[in-house]
């Protein structure tokens, strides 16, 4: 029994009282009627995915990743974090890589989307896919579709002279060096730690050594 300032309370009484007030606060408010279900707004979007035209009618909140995976059944792109932290969902849109979990599908009217399935398939691998196999650039493979899409786009960025945080100069042509590649691939996380093998695969495709010099 607890006794303070003339108030007497047992431990059991305090616990019962506490749970009663929790129950009260979680009850629905008064006799308010349930709001009628409202259909979420939908919109049509036409885009080209891996060379094929597709028109979808989607809830406007659908991400490009969910449109690809759930509506087009292209499950190569993976959902790791669903908020732009891991890179598993990387695809290319009009030749540039993006995190498809961070982009609404309806924003891509008329866009050309390339997923891992569009780069190559068994029997007809893209050179980057073949290099990942040759250099053991994966273990569980969950991050791999995103890594490969990113790696292809990274070499295109370097080729096009797009500078990165690791570039010594904003105007000089960047090299496909270890430093450049590591920096540009830093948004693609691999929980298996295949990073050094991924780098070897990228060098093989770029035809460069660790310093970025042409082999
Ligand atoms: S699922 Fe898109 S960044 Fe992780
Ligand atoms: S290969 Fe397993 S997460 Fe990268």
Task: Give a short summary of the structure.
The protein has 7 helices and 7 strands.
* Biggest sheet features: 5 strands, mixed
Helical fraction equals 25-40%
Secondary-structure element string: EEHEEHEEEHHHHH
Poorly predicted tracts of residues: 1-7, 14-27
Category by helix and strand content: alpha+beta
Task: Give the spatial strand order of the biggest sheet.
Answer: 4-3-7-5-6
Per DSSP, the total helix count is 7
Overall pLDDT, averaged? 89
Strand content range = 15-25%
> Judging from the principal axes of the Cα atoms, what is the shape?
elongated
Instruction: Report how far apart the termini are.
Output: 83 Å
Which features would summarize this protein structure in a list?
single chain, 215 residues, alpha+beta, five-stranded mixed β-sheet, two-stranded antiparallel ribbon, 7 strands, 33% helix, disordered N terminus, binds FE2/S2 (inorganic) cluster
Task: Outline the secondary-structure elements.
Layout: E1 2-4, E2 7-9, H1 11-26, E3 42-49, E4 52-59, H2 64-71, E5 90-93, E6 96-99, E7 112-114, H3 116-119, H4 127-134, H5 144-159, H6 178-184, H7 195-206
Parallel strand pairs: 3-7
Antiparallel strand pairs: 1-2, 3-4, 5-6, 5-7
Helix pairs in contact: 4-7
Bound molecules: FE2/S2 (inorganic) cluster (2 copies).
């Amino acid at each position: 029994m607890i006794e303070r300032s003339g108030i007497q309370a047992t431990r059991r009484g305090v616990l019962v009282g506490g749970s009663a007030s929790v129950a009260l606060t979680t009850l629905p408010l008064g006799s308010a009627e349930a709001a009628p279900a409202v259909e979420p707004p939908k919109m049509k979007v036409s885009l080209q995915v891996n060379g094929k035209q597709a028109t979808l009618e989607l809830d406007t909140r659908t991400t490009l990743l969910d449109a690809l995976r759930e509506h087009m059944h292209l499950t190569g792109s993976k959902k790791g974090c669903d908020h732009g932290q891991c890179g598993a969902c990387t695809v290319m849109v009009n030749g540039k890589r993006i995190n498809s979990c961070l982009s609404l599908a309806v924003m891509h009217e008329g866009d050309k989307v390339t997923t891992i399935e569009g780069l190559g398939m068994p029997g007809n691998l893209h050179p980057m896919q073949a290099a990942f196999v040759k250099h053991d650039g994966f273990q569980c493979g969950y991050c791999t579709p995103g890594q490969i899409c990113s790696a292809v786009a990274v070499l295109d960025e370097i080729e096009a002279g797009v500078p990165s945080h690791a570039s010594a100069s904003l105007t000089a042509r960047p090299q496909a060096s270890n430093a450049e590649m590591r920096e540009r691939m830093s948004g693609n996380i691999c929980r298996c730690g295949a990073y050094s093998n991924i780098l070897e695969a990228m060098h093989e495709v770029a035809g460069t050594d660790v310093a970025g010099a042409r082999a």
